[in-house]
Amino acid sequence: MKAFMTWVIIMVFLFPCSSWAMRCGKGLVTVGDVKAKVLTECGKPQSRERVGSKETRYGHERRGGKKVTRLVEQWTYNCGEGDFIYVLTFEGGKLVKEEPVARGKGPSRCGGN
Predict the structure, then answer these.
(1) What CA–CA distance (Å, rounded) separates 60 from 33?
(2) In terms of C-beta density within 10 A (0-12 exposed, 13-18 middle, 19 or more buried), how is residue 86 classed?
(3) Other C-beta atoms within 10 Å of 54: how many?
(4) Which residues share a beta bridge with 84?
(5) pTM exceeds 0.70 for this model
(6) How confident is the model at residue 15 (pLDDT cuts 50, 70, 90)?
(7) How many Å apart are CA 64 and CA 62, to the nearest integer?
(8) Continuous segment of H or E residues that includes residue 11
(9) What is the DSSP string of 24-65?
(10) Which of 36, 69, 83, 84 could potentially form a cystine with 100 if both were Cys, beta carbons 3.0 to 4.6 Å apart?
(11) Where does the pLDDT of residue 90 fall: very low under 50, low under 70, confident under 90, or very high at 90 and above?
(12) Are strands 84-91 and 94-103 parallel, antiparallel or unpaired?
């Protein structure tokens, strides 16, 4: 039984999962959400910035493979005192990264409609 529990604990640390989500008002925003959901849950961001594009190839080019270019944007939300300023990164309209970058200041601007 001890060996089994040790194995379970080791497996938990070997395969971490990211279950972190940003709270906006009464809703949650997490990686994989689309821009429309983020706008509904959090409202308009304090700033929007286009930071480039990301190119992905599918299949071999000579055999009719496709090249897809996705716009990369970063949205910034100030969730107020007692919380953080978050930068949300979107690729092709889908949330791929949530990052707290500093402590929030003033009133929260993270509330949906």
Answers:
(1) 30
(2) buried
(3) 13
(4) 103
(5) yes
(6) very low
(7) 6
(8) helix 2-14
(9) ETTEEE-TT-BHHHHHHHH-S-SEEEEEEEEEEEES-GGGT-
(10) 84
(11) very high
(12) antiparallel
Cα–Cα distance for residue pair 79/86, rounded to 1 Å:
8
Query: Could you please report the per-residue DSSP string of 83-108?
Result: SEEEEEEEETTEEEEEEEEEE--SS-
Q: Give me the residue spans of the domains in the chain.
A: 19-103
CATH topology of domain 19-103: Beta-lactamase Inhibitory Protein; Chain:B, domain 1 (3.30.1450)
For the record, the structure tokens of 101 come out as 């970058």
Burial 70-79 (b: 16+ CB within 10 A, else e): beebbbebbb
How sure is the predictor about 42, in pLDDT bands with cuts at 50, 70 and 90? very high
